[in-house]
Design goal:
The protein is α+β, with helices and mostly antiparallel strands and 263 residues long. It folds into two domains: 125 residues, Immunoglobulin-like, CATH 2.60.40; 98 residues. The protein has three helices and eight strands. Strands 2-8-7-4-5 form a five-stranded mixed beta sheet, with no helix packed on it. A three-stranded antiparallel beta sheet has the order 1-3-6.
Length: 263
């Protein structure tokens, strides 16, 4: 049993040691130059590939060192979506460019750096200082082009936002106009309602007068009914009916005539 446990322990240890190395080895960078030897002020082209392709925005550092390990060229480039990258520069131009073997190194965090060597032969011909200035101007022009593109994108976004704001303002103005129209209609309806309330108040006042008149008539009628009721309670002899009143008048009339005919 003891040898088996020892063997398992050794296997686990090997896995812990080998796995990080295998992971690191999976992220690699390869780099090379267009030729194996250069001289004078020849242009040196550098190409390479980062595997797998790095994340967007990554920058691969390229350095070229002379035989004394002094850096004679350094630059950073952005790889494409496939991980490929390229760069170029002019050899010579300074005392650091001596004859010998030069090393190109391409590195990126998380990747195993790639390297490549080429030979260089110095000549008495020196590169005019304007060469490096021209390359710098080209790089500046490229940066300016990128900045111009970004500014154009910003202007386009700003124009879109301005158009959106204009559309929102138009909608807001239309809504405000609608609200104003509704308020005007509401005010007109309120005025009409006020007029109708005044008319109703006048009608109520007239109805109150008519009710007062009706109350007075009812009082008069009640008085007449009470008088009729009182007359109905008198003895029959004291009741004055229309017939009784007519006969009384006739007796008075005949009596007057009788007395006029008497001698």
């Amino acid at each position: 049993m003891k040898p088996s446990i020892a063997l398992l322990s050794a296997l686990f240890a090997a896995l812990f040691i080998v796995s990080p190395l295998a992971f690191a080895a999976s992220n690699t960078i390869s780099v090379s130059t267009g030729a194996t030897s250069y001289s004078g002020n020849q242009s040196i082209s550098i190409t390479g590939t980062a595997t797998p392709a790095p994340a967007t925005g990554s920058q691969i550092l390229i350095e070229v060192s002379n035989p004394s390990s002094n850096v004679v060229f350094a630059d950073s480039v952005a790889p494409t979506a496939s991980g490929a990258f390229s760069d170029s520069f002019g050899a010579g131009g300074s005392s650091a460019w001596v004859s010998g073997t030069y090393t190109v190194t391409a590195s990126l965090t998380g990747y195993t750096a790639g390297s490549y060597t080429f030979s260089y032969t110095a000549t008495s011909t020196t590169v005019p200082s304007s060469y490096n200035v021209t390359k710098a101007l080209v790089n500046i022009q490229g940066n300016l082009t990128q900045i111009k593109s970004e500014l154009t994108a910003l202007q386009s976004a700003g124009a879109k936002e301005q158009a959106d704001m204009k559309g929102n303002f138009t909608a807001f103005n239309a809504a405000l106009t609608s609200i104003t129209s509704q308020l005007t209609t509401l005010s007109s309806n309120l005025n009409t309602l006020t007029t109708n309330v005044g008319t109703i108040q006048t009608d109520v006042t007239n109805m109150q007068g008519q009710l007062t008149t009706m109350a007075n008539n009812i009082t008069t009628l009640n008085t007449a009914v009470q008088a009729a009721s009182a007359a109905a309670t008198l003895p029959k002899q004291q009741r004055i009916t229309p017939t009784t009143r007519f006969l009384a008048r006739r007796r008075t009339c005949w009596s007057s005539r009788f007395w006029q005919l008497s001698p």
